[in-house]
Write the structure tokens for this entry.
Amino acid sequence: MLKQLHIRNYVIIDTLEIQFSNGMNIVTGETGAGKSIILGALSLILGERADTAALVDKEKKCIIEGLFTPGTVSEITQFLEANDLDPAPEITIRREIGINGKSRAFINDTPVNLAQLQQLSSLLVDLHQQFDTLQLGDTGFQVHVLDALANNAKLIGDYRLIFAEWQQHKKKLEHLKEQQAQLDKESDYNQFQYDELAEANFLENELEEIDASLKLLSNSEGIKGALGRAYSELEEGEQPLVQQLKSVAHLLGNYSSFHKDLPDLVSRLNSAQVELQDIATELEHISNGIHYDPEKIETLSDRLSMGYRLQKKHGVHTTNELLALQKELEEKLQGAAHIQEDIAALEAATEQRRISTETLAQKISEARKKQIAPFEKKVDTLLTQVGMPNAALRVSFEKKAPGAQGADAVDFLFDANKSGQFKPVNKVASGGELSRLMLCIKSLVAQRMNLPTLIFDEIDTGISGEAAKQVGIIMKDLASSRQVICITHQPQIAGRADAHYFVYKEVSGKQVRTGMRQLDTEERITAIAKMLSGEKPTAAALENAREMVQA
């Protein structure tokens, strides 16, 4: 409930602080006294857009602050936790408008954005204005009314979860099918490219090795001649180098005992002789392995040519890049084969969720249907009670494709004059009729919808007498289990107040300011008497007012 409202520097309000009671709070005052200004200030902490025109003193910021007690509403606790706001027994909502026009909002002194403020305020306060009845013609609200009457909260929660899963699966399935179509479109070309590379059957680094082999084969005669000559110089010439080293080592060996450095030199000469002999043997071995082979050259040239052609075709430069492309094409072809299996599995899962969605939707529909007849009857009774005896409400209920709220198309139809012509409420009902109709509906579902503090702004316009009295009775009944704040011109409604507030204007110098104060019992009687008979109430009016207050 709203415990306290503090307003500073707003329109023609300098400073104002109001304490509200738990039950029925009535606000009265002359036309133009500033009741709508107070409501406008309250709207700011409920998330309405701010305007610098609201500032009285352009040198000071405007501050609107409301103190709420959330009670045990679980949605409020969930909101606070979801937005990293500490749950508390009291919630302070503050809105500030700076002199530069910028607005800031706070929940328990923590800055929040406007969307967060609107979300929380919708859980704390339900504001019902005379012409603010578009919600009544909204299908979402109409379905919500039937669900509240049917206690469908758990069913709706389960339904929304499975419906969301169904929609997600449908999107995934659509995406997979798009992928499949694209793969099918590319499949033939990918298969051709893959077959071409698979048929080539290249080994790792093969083209690079072929290129080296061709260079060797193409120069085999020259290489073989150079190897033979080198071998001859080492082993078979007129004076082979190996033999010469052997002779030199032997010559020096005869005198190695006579000089300390000669043994080492002899040893090195022997090592060099062994090394050159090994080199000669290796040269001979290499030479024996080199043969000019025109057929092999032709074969390797053809394979290298094919490899270069494929490299050019695919824009790569190495054998390994061709092999990587071959593997990539293979994976694409395998993916095309696997995607059909994935589609089949996802189709089964999607169908399962469709069936679950429709099963839950059917249960919800049946529960809603059961509420329609008693709901229509109760609303018609209440309409008579609030001065609309010829009016009636009917609920149009048809099947539709499953959506976020179920598989029902709900429409509230209204007939104000027993014409038998029922049409959508927002097309045929006047502002006053819509306001009273909304009051009747809210009075039926308030407990089950867990409606927060209810604020009614002059929804009694156009009624009087017994109808106004009955509106007051309905509001008083609502106030037995929740806070009601009502701005009214009707004495029959004002007489039902638990707390009566009077809005007035006062002149201070050249400035006009709006004030508001709570009336005591005698002041209430006088205020209601003035509402009955004018500025100077008669004795009869005072007596009548006393009866209303004491009723």
About this structure: The chain is about 55% helix and 20% strand. Confidence is low (pLDDT under 50) at residues 130-134.
